[in-house]
Design goal:
9 strands; alpha/beta; 2-enoyl-CoA Hydratase, Chain A, domain 1; three-stranded mixed sheet; single chain; Lyase 2-enoyl-coa Hydratase, Chain  A, domain 2; isomerase
Length: 312
């Protein structure tokens, strides 16, 4: 992935090479990594490239400089809320604004749409849009200097990029309500108590080492099991227990019989580390292959029907 093609992001493989871990860096340190219009265009593209890259198994999302993310860039807000001549038709202006908001939402949701786990490593400020980002991530860690705020209420805005939908499932409804209504700043230690982050580290260096160890551990596991676990957990968030159980039963009926299962059992018996194959390297290839299998199955099915005189 060419980081030079992005203005607001930088992507690179982690050391050691071949670990399956890639870094995705919010790269506007002079603006405290505020989320510009360019970011919302580039972020889903960057994640899609990483998702389709067979070398990538885990993504670590972090911020360049002293802060993770200071929120949405105020110039981005200005571009959204003002459009010359829009006052002539309030309905059309509102429809355009809704499309703009959905565009921004889709960029954040691309984290959940990425098959690969995304781990947030947070230092310094994580405010407003930064909360939107990390609540969409799969795992979150921070350093002791991190501080957080659901800041939108102080800007006379209802948070609309995912915090109000995702934060309650992470920290509980009552805690999310209090944080969103007050907009108050809270520390990394409180974030740990609330369950927003899994662990707090004394320094960024210590956090980076620990996050890399976690990421490498996940990357060493079956990619089918890892991506499946993420998909089932996300789907189950919106399902009842019965619906979630039915979904995972269907998922495993399609995925559990695999080379990964054979390798995991063989490695356990032989007392060695398992070595799992990469996922498909092309979304287009995967879709084409699936389409060909479906067409072949349908063709065989039709031949059977003709043989038995059902279609004659």
């Amino acid at each position: 992935m060419e980081s030079s093609s992005f203005k607001t992001l930088q992507s690179s493989p982690a050391n050691p090479a071949g670990s399956g871990v890639f870094h995705l860096l919010l790269n506007r340190p002079t603006h405290r990594n505020a989320l510009s219009r360019d970011f919302f265009s580039e972020f889903p593209k960057a994640l899609s490239l990483l998702d389709q890259n067979p070398e990538v198994r885990v993504i670590v999302l972090s911020g360049a400089g002293h802060h993770f993310c200071s929120g949405i860039d105020l110039s981005t807000l200005g571009n959204i809320t003002y459009s010359p001549g829009s006052e002539a038709d309030r309905g059309r202006s509102a429809e355009r604004l809704r499309r703009d908001i959905k565009f921004l939402q889709d960029a954040i949701t691309s984290i959940e749409q990425c098959r690969k786990p995304v781990i947030a490593a947070i230092q310094g400020a994580c405010i407003g849009g930064g909360i939107d980002l990390i609540t969409a991530c799969d795992v979150r860690y921070c350093s002791e200097d991190a501080f957080f705020s659901v800041k939108e209420v102080d800007l006379a805005i209802v948070a609309d990029l995912g915090t109000l939908q995702r934060l309650p499932t992470i920290v509980g409804f009552g805690n999310a309500m209090e944080l969103a209504l007050t907009g108050r700043r809270f520390t990394g230690l409180e974030a740990k108590e609330l369950g927003l982050v899994s662990q707090v580290f004394k320094s960024r260096e210590e956090m980076d080492r620990a996050v890399m160890a976690v990421a490498q551990g996940i990357a060493s596991k079956s990619p089918l099991a890892v991506t499946g676990t993420k998909a089932v957990l996300l789907k189950g968030r919106d399902y009842s227990v019965d619906q979630g159980l039915d979904y995972v039963a269907t998922w495993n009926s399609a995925m559990i019989i695999s080379d990964d299962l054979k390798e995991a059992i063989a490695a356990h018996v032989q007392k060695r580390k398992p070595l799992f194959a990469k996922l498909c390297n092309s979304l287009k290839t995967s879709i084409t292959s699936h389409h060909e299998r479906v067409c072949l199955t349908w063709e065989r099915y039709c031949k059977l029907l003709i043989k038995d005189n059902f279609l004659s």
